[in-house]
Amino acid sequence: MDNGLKRVAICFLLWIVCSSVVYTKHRPRRDLNIVHEWSQIEFDYHSEVERQANIDSGFFRDGTIVPLDCDVYYSGNTSTVFITTPRIHSGTPVTLGIVTDRTRNGNPIVAPYPSWSWHNNSNECPVNGISSAFRITIDECERLWVIDIGPLNDVITCPARLLVFDLRTNHLLLRYEFPNSVLLSNSFLSTLVVDVVDQANSCRNTFVYLGDVRGFQMIVYDLAQNRSWAVRDRTMYPYPNYGIYNIAGQQFYIMDGIVGMSLTPNKPGEPRRLFYHAMSSPTENWVYTSYLRNETIFRNNPFAAPQIFHTYRNTRSTQSSAEAIDRDGIMYYGLLGDIKIACFNTQGIYQNKNSTAIIADNPVTLQFPDGVKISTNSRGRQELWILTSRAQYVATGTMFDVNETNFRIMVADVNQLVSGTSCRHSQPRGLTNNPDIYLP
Fold it and tell me: Which region is the signal sequence (predicted)?
């Protein structure tokens, strides 16, 4: 090799080394920091005697309770983490609580919210009580919204209700019982997103969109009118080929409808979109919220407007549960079979390398991310909160090993997660309305 070629080769190698060093130095850390973790859920009993009495009576079956969802409330410099523990079987004394800074055998203690009295006599469907909190969300008006579905041993014992608490006072603001006219015989309201159209007049101009995981429909609730209606479309159904799950060596079969739901940012001049997907499916769908808020479209026929629903042509390779969208329009969601967390720029094309990326990958800590939330902390920075539940053990009827960590709540700075990924770069919209979404 002559001297000229040697110099070119040396310069090229130096460029590669320097580029690698620069990339390594500035490469963002994509860690989800564990805030709380449990081998089993513990509750805030007044004494060990009371706790043991509840265990002896079967009111508290320790080691069998599974958390499902979480959200965080920032007030000044303090934060409060809420968690749901649905009553999927007997022996769950508390179904909605606050994670305290105290522990028992290393497990964070959960205090009942708003008080113990709200969790007693759940089988009797008390007016001032919570039968079974499934999922929750905290809105920008400092309100905690709760789906109270009321199942026990997989049987609906109490009417499905929407509960709303004022987090500044911890008082109940609203109790709304869904009428039979919007529910089906097998309805199970599993998830919700809150659309605050504007914050005037005590945030009364608010709509809630709820996913019916077994009825394969949405329910829309209008706070100002205190009314609800059903919306149905075939995009809300599961896919038969995606009913078989394989997660960390556990295989089970579930044909679940809508679980993932999220809203694009509320920006002036931009129509807001609701994204959603059936858990047992490979697709992502969306609809303009202005259509959903128009009750007259669906009054006589919940299936009246198939043309308003859109489905991306590209699909996931595995099922997905919960999802959330940040104020920049970036979606975050779990890939159940892959045991990863992905992001998607909603201005781009779904499952395209130019707008989708993997941002977290841990086969141990990321098993079954059932709770996914975006929150803004006291410094104005966005955070991604994720609760992982290892729910595959529930689906297969396998007991949890209480000597292992089974449940985690994790958090990460959104900017660190997506910095340098394709999710940060807007691409032309890939909006489609594929009429044959069940076809390859």
Answer: 1-24
Angle CA 210–212–218, to nearest 5: 55
E strands within 248-336?
250-253, 258-263, 273-278, 285-288, 310-311, 323-325, 330-335
Sequence-distant contacts of 81-85: CB under 8 A, at least 24 apart: 81/35, 81/36, 81/409, 82/113, 82/136, 82/138, 82/144, 83/110, 83/387, 83/409, 84/133, 84/134, 84/135, 84/136, 84/146, 85/41, 85/110, 85/133
Structure tokens at 317: 């390779």
Best CA proximity match to 389, nearest among 113, 98, 90, 135:
135
Q: In the structure encoding, which two tokens stand for residue 149, read together?
A: 């579905």
Q: How many CB atoms lie within 10 A of CB 177?
A: 13
Residue type, 55: I
Cα separation, 370 vs 67, whole angstroms = 9
Query: Cα–Cα distance between 299 and 297 in angstroms, integer?
Result: 6
Mean pLDDT by groups of 10 residues along the chain of 440 residues: 46 35 37 95 97 96 94 96 94 97 98 97 85 97 95 75 98 97 96 96 96 98 98 99 96 97 95 98 99 98 98 98 98 98 97 96 96 97 97 85 95 96 71 37
**SS3 (DSSP) at 76:** coil
Stretch (H or E) spanning 219:
strand 217-222
Where in the chain are the domains? Answer: 31-424
What is the CATH code of the structural domain delimited by 31-424?
2.120.10.30
Q: How far apart are CA 275 and CA 280, in angstroms?
A: 16
**134/190 Cα distance (integer angstroms):** 6
Q: Tell me the one-letter amino acid at 146.
A: V
Query: For residues 232, 234, 235 and 239, what is the CA-based torsion angle, rounded to 10 degrees?
Result: 130
Which secondary-structure segment (H or E) carries 52? helix 48-57
pTM: 0.90
CA angle 281, 286, 291 (to 5 degrees): 135
Q: How many residues does the chain have?
A: 440
Facing residues of 288 across strands? 273
What does R_g of the chain's alpha carbons equal in angstroms?
A: 23
